[in-house]
Amino acid sequence: MAQFDLKETAEPLERAVLVGIDRGEGLWSLEESLAELERLANTAGATVVATTTQRLDAPNPRTFVGSGKAEEVAQLCRSFAADVVIFDDELSPSQQSNLEKTVPKDVKVIDRTALILDIFALHATTKEGRLQVRLAQNQYLLPRLRGMWAHLASNRMGGGVGSRFGEGESQLEVDRRMVRKRITSIKRELAELAENRQLQRKSRYESGMFRVSLAGYTNAGKSSLLNALTGADVLSYDQLFATLDSTTRKYELPEGREITITDTVGFIQKLPTTLVEAFKSTLDEVVGADLILHVVDASSREFEAQIAAVEDVLEQIHAQNISRVTVFNKIDLLDAEALAALRHRYEDAVFVSAETRKGLDDLIARIAWVAASKDVIMHLAVPYSRGDIVSLAHERCRILSEDFREDGTYLTLQAPASCAGLLEAFSVSAEA
């Protein structure tokens, strides 16, 4: 039998060196932040071969880290044959340029923001998602044109981590005017898509349906929870930023009331402002909700810092005043003692496992309770010619009594606040 040489066809993982500085501030320890950066690097297709840190009160304006540490980073790149250096904070254009001159010429230098944008480029699937990522990338690149484009001109960017920056970015003649033109063009396309999304959103608002949005740190299990509640088939992986596009599904509460539940893009600490702005139309699903379910990974050691990071983004998008329920997910990964301590500490939270479905009934009951707390009691007299109003009342409201008389249908019902305006024209006194 003929012998054949087997050849490896899979792309080898890029080798990454991580760099972080400890300023002794914030909820995140340097160790935790770098552990997350490693997960981000893995998600983007790199394997971490070395990590180095430095204690500084403030970043060095020239090379972010001190000159001695910059030389150490260069030596690590040589020792471990690294392909990319990833800094845990955002680098200025000049810092990136100076660092590129220090490390070996075939090594890329990127920061946390570029890494996140790179992952978003990998995972964007819809037209709107791809446009949003491209917009954020171009906004990030605009002030870095000199350094970044020289980097590309010398073919140092290559492929892989940190290089998925949209169409045309490898053209040497690209300049600020072209990038600004591209940003304007993308914004125009996004505006058209946002208009269509707004029409869909408006029809949901006018329907009087109670709207629930899932928000939370990336990989907290929002998509899994949506799937468990509604039977949806939303992509769900144990991976950072597995899904970027919002998904809305209808759900009928046990009392018969229909609601919508929307899954949204996950948040992360040090979330680039360019991403918050670019994903505005997606995040509007959170801003327009009647209730936000803040989904938290109960098994994460950093859940407190993750909660704070999500609260920060909710404040950025002006959603901090919307009714909120904290939902601790993945409780199947906790032992009894840890779960009891968490329940004691967060008495108002709901504890669930999307994987085993434990606690879902409690979550559904809490959603129904919040929805009902915003209801108003109404008495209606609806002529028989307006059967659509009676149908709406049955679909969106809780019927307390119904009486058929000669001149029409008389209803006493519990109506959501969002639906009350549609029924107001048929309101009569309780005596009637």
Features:
alpha/beta, 6-stranded mixed β-sheet, 15 helices, 432 residues
The gist of it:
This protein has 432 residues and is α/β, with parallel strands linked by helices. The protein has 15 helices and 13 strands. The chain is elongated.
Q: Report the C-alpha radius of gyration, rounded.
A: 26 Å
SS-based class: alpha/beta
Number of helices: 15
Shape: elongated
Largest sheet: 6 strands, mixed
> How would you spell out the order of helices and strands?
EHEHEHEHHHHEHEEHHEHEHEHEHEEH
Our estimate of the beta-strand percent is 15-25%
- Strand order, sheet with most strands: 6-7-5-8-9-10
Helix content range: 40-55%
Arithmetic mean of pLDDT: 84
Spatial gap, N to C terminus: 94 Å
Q: Multimeric state of these chains?
A: single chain
Q: Compute the number of strand runs.
A: 13
Low-pLDDT runs of 5+ residues are 147-157, 167-172
